[in-house]
């Protein structure tokens, strides 16, 4: 398997379509992808695993992971789709695997997302061989021929979180190792041959027509076979029950981890309370400023109005003026003189009438008072008005913010209330009980294996006695020959398998030890890595062999042990695939780091390293430059800081500097 490109659409921080090319050149197997925190490094890693295998966990966990996978801004754009596509070559064929998530915006908005369907599509050489109507069994049958999920943990891993698990002794890791090395296929082949031999034996016995002794032996053999099959059925039932118990134990441990996250929820709750307090303070400040403006404006206008009214409402002024002028105007004829000696004409009469009408109008004093009041108002009244409007809007916004924060606070309180100490203790008790049941089932399966072995021995004895009787018909002889041939093939295949297992174990052990000696910072202490019959890791020192837990190396040394083991597996794997490593150097000291950087080009034909700037310095990337085909950085878009994109660094400059 060789990956050419990966495309993300609306997946986590990648809004719209983002395609990154990963093809490598000869003698340059490295692809470096750097990113700061929350830029999309882990999203890239999660996206590749999601595309190939989907999300793992129980149904609620899977549903939540699907919601979290959809880009937040894409959610606000109504209905849409999220997908990750991996384009690669395998055994000379071109493949494309796309896994979709369809979604719509939830009722009521607020960024909620409703997930529709989630399904994969596979194309091989341009022809669609799996679509949304295909079953999961059809999909897994194809993917397992390329890179089975249990084997992928040695090719796609987080060096900081996953490697330590691979040094532990457990069934899951052993099965993954057997898949990587092709041992599981040999086991399946042996089993198929044994079943075929059983079928030929059944046909052979049913075709016997000779003496009563043969019929009796056949009956006895059939009884033994039925007893063996009953035992095998019990064993299969126990193994199925064991698998369910292991799945249940895994779910219980996940729930315990979820409960242990309550401290994080409480920290979020405290942050929300601080945010509510800050928003409340801002709102109170705005209200005080609003009240201050209202308090100043009211008395000011009222005082100015009163002043004008008092000035123009003195008793008798308008009345006396009106009496004098009216007496003058009503004189007949209107031919008097002014006190200045000038004659009074009709024109003078009209002006006097106009003046008395204006001065005796009851509304006039108020108009004058209001005009005066307007002149005496502060010159920045428009600014105060604008400030008043802005303060009201700020208060409204803070009200909305406080309501939203209080709603989130209620949600967190509900989540915390749902998680009690009693639940935690109950889960731990259920975990312990389930582990005990798993141990009991393992013991029961071992007991059934011993009983099955005894029945098989009895079968062999009966078969030999039947063969010694002779007299078989031509059909009986043919069936007997086929049975014996199948049996011999199964035995030969079993021998081949055992030789292959031992050979592969020795080769992996030798390769892993060599790599470990190159990478460790204590070559004088550690002599190598040893694998037992169950592929459990042992550390070899001058004082003897110890498992990893007993040896108790540092976190960095444990990481180097796991790297060495993976290097040994990949060198003799029956599955060729790229290695994608997230957080490659987090716990390593400078010596381990420098040695591992030098070894990465030999780890696989295609190695994608997802690193933070603190893990690889400019000098480190320059050292790796001549083995690097592409060097990319994940950055935020200039026009959208919440969205990430890929940019490529010119490798020719790094190679030139390194040379």
Strands, helices and their partners?
Elements: E1 2-11, E2 14-21, E3 30-35, H1 41-53, H2 59-69, H3 72-75, E4 80-90, E5 93-105, E6 113-124, E7 127-130, H4 136-146, H5 149-152, E8 156-158, H6 171-181, H7 183-206, H8 212-259, H9 262-311, H10 317-329, H11 346-359, H12 364-376, H13 381-418, H14 421-469, H15 474-519, E9 526-531, E10 537-541, E11 544-547, H16 548-551, H17 555-571, E12 579-582, H18 590-599, E13 607-611, H19 618-624, E14 628-636, E15 644-649, H20 651-658
Parallel strand pairs: 3-13, 3-14, 8-12, 12-13
Antiparallel strand pairs: 1-2, 1-4, 4-5, 5-6, 6-7, 9-10, 10-11, 14-15
Helix pairs in contact: 7-15, 8-14, 9-12, 9-13, 10-11, 15-17
Classification by helices and strands: alpha/beta
Largest sheet: 6 strands, antiparallel
- Give the spatial strand order of the biggest sheet: 2-1-4-5-6-7
Oligomer state equals: single chain
Helix content: 55-70%
Average pLDDT metric: 80
Determine the N-to-C terminus distance.
31 Å
Unreliable segments (pLDDT under 50, ≥5 consecutive)? 312-320
What is the count of helical runs?
Answer: 20
Strand content: 15-25%
* Shape category: elongated
Task: Outline the structure in words.
The protein is α/β, with parallel strands linked by helices and 659 residues long. The protein has a domain of 152 residues. The chain is 60% helix and 16% strand. It is built from 20 helices and 15 strands. It has a 6-stranded antiparallel sheet with strand order 2-1-4-5-6-7. α9 runs antiparallel to α13 and α15 packs across α17. About 1% of the residues have low confidence.
């Amino acid at each position: 398997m060789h990956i050419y490109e990966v495309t993300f659409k609306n997946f986590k921080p990648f809004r719209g379509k983002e395609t990154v090319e990963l093809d490598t050149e000869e003698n340059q197997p490295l692809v470096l992808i750097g990113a700061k925190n929350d830029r999309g490094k882990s999203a890239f890693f999660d996206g590749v695993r999601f595309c190939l295998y989907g999300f793992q966990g129980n149904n609620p966990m899977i549903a939540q992971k699907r919601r979290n996978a959809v880009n937040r801004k894409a959610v606000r754009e109504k209905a849409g789709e999220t997908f990750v596509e991996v384009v690669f070559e395998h055994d000379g064929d071109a493949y494309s695997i796309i896994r979709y998530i369809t979604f719509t915006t939830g009722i009521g908005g607020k960024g909620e997302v409703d997930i529709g369907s989630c399904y994969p599509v596979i194309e091989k050489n341009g022809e669609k061989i799996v679509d949304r109507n295909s079953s999961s069994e059809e999909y897994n049958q194809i993917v397992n021929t390329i890179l089975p999920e249990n084997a992928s943990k040695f090719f796609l891993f987080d060096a900081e979180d996953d490697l330590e698990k691979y040094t532990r002794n457990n069934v899951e890791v052993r099965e993954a190792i057997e898949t990587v090395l092709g041992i599981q296929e040999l086991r399946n082949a042996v089993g198929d041959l044994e079943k075929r031999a059983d079928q030929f034996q059944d046909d052979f016995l049913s075709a016997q027509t000779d003496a009563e002794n043969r019929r009796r032996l056949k009956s006895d053999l059939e009884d033994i076979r039925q007893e063996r099959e009953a035992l095998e059925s019990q064993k299969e039932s126990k193994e199925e029950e064991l698998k369910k118990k292991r799945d249940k134990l895994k779910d219980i441990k996940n729930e315990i981890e979820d409960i242990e996250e309550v401290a994080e929820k409480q920290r979020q709750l405290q942050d929300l309370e601080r945010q509510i307090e800050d928003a409340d303070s801002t709102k109170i400040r705005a209200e005080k400023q609003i009240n201050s403006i209202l308090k100043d404006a009211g008395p000011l206008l009222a005082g100015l109005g009163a002043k004008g009214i008092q000035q123009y409402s003195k008793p008798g002024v308008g009345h006396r003026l009106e009496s004098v002028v009216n007496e003058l105007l009503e004189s007949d004829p209107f031919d008097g003189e002014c006190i200045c000696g000038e004659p009074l004409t009709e024109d003078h009469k009209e002006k006097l009438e106009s003046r008395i009408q204006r001065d005796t109008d009851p509304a006039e004093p108020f108009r004058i008072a209001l005009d005066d009041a307007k002149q005496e108002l502060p010159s920045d009244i428009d600014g105060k008005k604008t400030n008043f409007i802005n303060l009201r809007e700020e208060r409204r916004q803070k009200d909305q913010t406080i309501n939203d924060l209080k709603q989130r606070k209620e949600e967190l309180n509900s989540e915390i209330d749902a998680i009690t100490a009693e639940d935690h203790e109950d889960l731990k008790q259920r975990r312990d009980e389930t582990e005990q049941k798993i141990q009991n089932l393992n013991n029961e399966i071992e007991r059934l294996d011993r009983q099955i072995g005894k029945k098989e021995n009895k079968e062999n004895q009966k078969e030999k006695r039947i063969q010694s009787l002779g007299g078989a018909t031509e059909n009986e002889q043919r069936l007997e020959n086929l049975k014996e041939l199948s049996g011999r093939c199964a035995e030969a295949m079993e021998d081949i398998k055992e030789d292959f297992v031992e050979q592969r174990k020795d080769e992996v052990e030798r390769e892993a030890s060599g790599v470990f000696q190159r990478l460790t910072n204590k070559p004088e202490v550690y002599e190598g890595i040893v694998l037992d019959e169950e592929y459990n890791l042992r550390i070899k020192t001058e004082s003897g062999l110890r498992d990893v837990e007993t040896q108790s190396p540092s976190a960095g040394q444990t990481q180097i042990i796991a790297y060495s083991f993976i290097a040994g597996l990949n060198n003799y794997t029956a599955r060729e695939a790229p290695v994608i490593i997230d957080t490659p150097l987090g716990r390593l000291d400078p010596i381990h780091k420098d040695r591992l950087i030098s070894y990465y080009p030999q780890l696989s034909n295609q190695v994608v390293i997802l690193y933070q700037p603190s893990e690889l310095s400019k000098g480190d990337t320059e050292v790796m430059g001549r083995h690097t085909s592409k060097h990319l950085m994940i950055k935020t878009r200039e026009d959208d800081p919440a969205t990430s994109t890929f940019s490529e660094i010119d490798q020719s400059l790094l190679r030139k500097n390194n040379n």
